[in-house]
């Protein structure tokens, strides 16, 4: 990608005003104790998911360790050379946007938009179709872009 193209994409991504899940990731990674949650990485279902799965969903009560477990999984996969698109639903001090479906979609569009295999024309079309970024995008409008983007990245 050329410098001018990169700047254009960054403008498009900033317009989405997406929550940044890397803040949750870094905070959890800095706080974790060595060896915490490694049981999950060795669990037969996780090992099977790594071979066949696309979506890994971890659900539990507040304070049960989901953030640390997910952070371990992300780190483990990144260390193996995988591109990981992740998101943390966060209710602590981050506003309402990190707990919404719209926040998830915006965040994933930003992550995918910076990926080399992403069709940048999809993001440009979305941007242009909303007054060159002067109006926000309703959730239902992002669905076709999200679905085609995930298929493009998976293929």
Describe the structure.
The chain is mainly α and 155 residues long. The chain folds into two domains: 79 residues, no CATH class; 65 residues, no CATH class. It is 57% helix and 0% strand. The protein has eight helices and no strands. The longest helix has 16 residues. It starts with a helix and ends with a helix.
Helix content: 55-70%
The end-to-end distance, rounded to whole angstroms, is 20 Å
Chain-averaged pLDDT: 76
Gyration radius from CA atoms, angstroms? 17 Å
**What pattern of helices and strands is seen along the backbone?**
HHHHHHHH
Task: Give the tally of structural domains.
Answer: 2
- Specify the number of helices: 8
Approximately what portion of the residues adopt beta-strand conformation?
Answer: under 5%
Detail the poorly predicted runs: 149-155
Work out the number of β strands.
0
Domain Nephrocystin 3-like N-terminal: 35-135
Keywords: Repeat
Protein name: Nephrocystin 3-like N-terminal domain-containing protein
InterPro entries: NPHP3-like_N, P-loop_NTPase
């Amino acid at each position: 990608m050329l410098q001018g193209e990169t700047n254009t994409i960054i403008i498009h991504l900033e317009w989405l005003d997406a929550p940044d899940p890397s803040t949750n990731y870094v905070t959890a990674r800095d706080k974790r104790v060595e060896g915490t949650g490694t049981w999950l990485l060795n669990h037969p279902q996780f090992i099977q998911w790594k071979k066949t799965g696309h979506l890994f969903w971890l659900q539990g009560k507040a304070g049960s360790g989901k953030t640390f477990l997910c952070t371990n999984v992300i780190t483990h996969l990144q260390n193996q050379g995988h591109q990981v698109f992740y998101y943390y639903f966060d209710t602590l001090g981050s506003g309402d946007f990190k707990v919404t479906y719209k926040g998830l979609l915006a965040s994933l569009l930003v992550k995918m938009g910076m990926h080399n295999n992403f069709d940048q024309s999809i993001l440009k079309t979305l941007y242009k179709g909303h007054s060159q970024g002067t109006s926000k995008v309703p959730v239902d409008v992002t669905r076709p872009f999200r679905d085609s983007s995930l298929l493009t990245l998976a293929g």
